[in-house]
Amino acid sequence: MNTSVDKIALGITEDEIALGSHLIHFWQSDEEFERGVRFLEIGMDDDSQYCVLFGHEEANERVLEILRRNGHDVDGLLRARRLTILCRDCSAAETLKAIKAAFSAAVENGAEVIRYLGNLGRSEAPLPGRGADEVVELENGATELAVRYPCVIVCMYDINTVSGALLLNAGFGTHSHAVRGRTLCENSYCAAE
């Protein structure tokens, strides 16, 4: 994809992040969750940027509530197709197809940048498919999509509810960068190529 943009403001921290990045934002407080949502808000303020939100129903609703409270016209963004919401209720393969379709549609509609915010944490519904293995497959596939589209993928992990195995294998194992608190750093534990 050709774009004149090579870095965007992250919003979670004061840093800029290169397009093609797939990073993890560990959160445990309401303030840290809301700082993660700031990543989408910056994109909503720029007509050339499109946003994709993915997660379990409770997390998606919480993000939308924050966006509305902060004055964003969520319904208008949905109608304009500048915001797409994907739910966590199918296999990794099906989810990756949905993400790819959302990214392709955004580019076709003129997106110069796509901001993807995913949420992983406990909800009333169990993880789909094979559970933890499915999450690792999804994260590896997201890394592949990140380099094919003009996007930054941010995955928010609720460290209060995500298992240690998921934190290690899906969290640290598949993200090139990590945010903890107010710090962005390269993730030396990333095994994804």
3D architecture notes:
There is one protein chain. This protein has 193 residues and is of the alpha/beta class. The model has no long low-confidence stretch (mean pLDDT 89). It is globular, with a radius of gyration of 15 Å. It has a seven-stranded mixed β-sheet, sandwiched between helices. The protein is built from six helices and nine strands, in the order E-E-E-H-E-H-H-E-H-E-H-E-H-E-E. It has a single domain (18-186), classed as Rossmann fold, CATH 3.40.50.300. The longest helix is centred in the middle third of the chain and has 17 residues, at 92-108. The chain is 40% helix and 25% strand. The two termini are 20 Å apart.
Give the SSE layout.
Layout: E1 7-9, E2 16-18, E3 22-27, H1 30-44, E4 49-55, H2 57-69, H3 74-79, E5 83-87, H4 92-108, E6 113-120, H5 132-146, E7 151-158, H6 164-174, E8 177-180, E9 183-186
Parallel strand pairs: 3-7, 3-8, 4-5, 4-6, 6-7
Antiparallel strand pairs: 1-2, 8-9
